[in-house]
TrEMBL record:
Keyword flag Oxidoreductase: yes
Name of the protein this chain belongs to: Oxygenase MpaB family protein
Class in the EC hierarchy, top level: oxidoreductase
Keywords of the record: Oxidoreductase
Top-rank taxon, per record: Bacteria
Enzyme Commission number(s) from the entry: 1.-.-.-
Length: 298
């Protein structure tokens, strides 16, 4: 059964979301990724494809940025070179493209993307406000960025994903992401969920809430460059991302910790919004009243 007008609404929402996440080149990039022939790094049934194609990535991506900002040297690199204020959507689109190519693209395209990112990393270096030197190519910093990202994507998927993974699936996802991390320069990356958790604990003495990190958090959560009509649903995504952060990551960024509200109101609102995004991004030929696996967001 098709509800009149629903397809048009779905198309408008999907187009707006896709343009924001993937940019004006998104459709061309998507076609290349999906239609190019050749072997892939990951088979269609691998967990990395399941997680990275799901709408929960909207929550996981924002959580990852907040968590990554807690390392002062990683945050210094972002503040000094990324332009998160001047071009926040460009940064999001580049990250989305990287994830799409390495998760779904051909081996040759994935390898070319990795080589491009490594060249960029070689140019990103400087001195943090505390006087310590940093370099994006530093394996220790690369490892932190990877661990925070994988933990965030997996956590968001387990909470808001369409089909949460069992333990074997979660370990399989971490193993899949380790292939990408190793190609980027991470030495002996984690391959199980337990190892990811242990890595987070090991990094905690190095973490802290710098002025740059708190400024980035305020910008991402409270001052996003969005039309007024889009800010309420974005606010729900932001609340879901904050609620998914571990308690020890809140205070350094001056973020609230409201366990009762987060376990009830925020979780229900986040789940409803992610379901709406998943519905909007589903293949247009499927019934608007039926669930369907989402396309990649980039």
């Amino acid at each position: 059964m098709t509800v009149p007008g629903v397809s048009a609404v779905r198309e408008r929402i999907a187009t707006a979301l896709f343009e924001r996440v993937a940019g004006t080149e998104g459709p061309e990039r998507r076609d290349r990724i999906q239609l190019s022939e050749g072997p892939r790094w990951f088979a269609e049934d691998r967990p990395i494809r399941q997680v990275h194609a799901d709408a929960s990535m909207f929550v996981g991506g924002l959580r990852a940025l907040l968590l990554q900002s807690l390392h002062p040297l990683a945050m210094a690199g972002v503040a000094g070179h990324s332009g998160f204020r001047g071009d926040p959507w460009g940064r999001l689109q580049r990250t989305s493209h990287f994830l799409a190519v390495t998760s779904f693209g051909t081996e040759s395209d994935a390898e070319a993307m990795i080589a491009r990112i490594r060249r960029i990393h070689e140019r990103v270096q400087g001195t943090a406000p505390d006087g310590r030197p940093y370099a994006a190519s530093d394996p220790h910093l690369l490892r932190w960025v990877h661990v925070a990202e994988v933990d965030s994507f997996l956590y968001a998927y387990q909470r808001y994903g369409a089909h949460p993974l069992d333990q074997a699936g979660r370990d399989g996802y971490v193993t899949d992401t380790a292939k990408v991390a190793a190609a980027l320069g991470v030495i002996d990356p984690p391959t199980t969920e337990a190892q990811i958790r242990a890595e987070l604990t090991a990094y905690r003495p190095e973490l802290g809430g710098t002025h740059e990190a708190r400024d980035a958090a305020r910008f991402m959560l409270l001052q996003p460059p969005l039309p007024l009509a889009v800010r309420p649903p974005y606010g729900l995504l932001a609340a879901a991302a904050v609620a998914s952060l571990p308690w020890w990551a809140r205070w350094p960024l001056r973020l609230p910790y409201l366990p009762v509200a987060e376990a009830t109101v925020v979780r229900l609102a986040g789940d409803g919004l992610v379901r709406t995004i998943r519905w909007a991004m589903a293949p247009p030929e499927s019934s608007p009243l039926e669930s369907a696996p989402p396309h990649s967001a980039a």
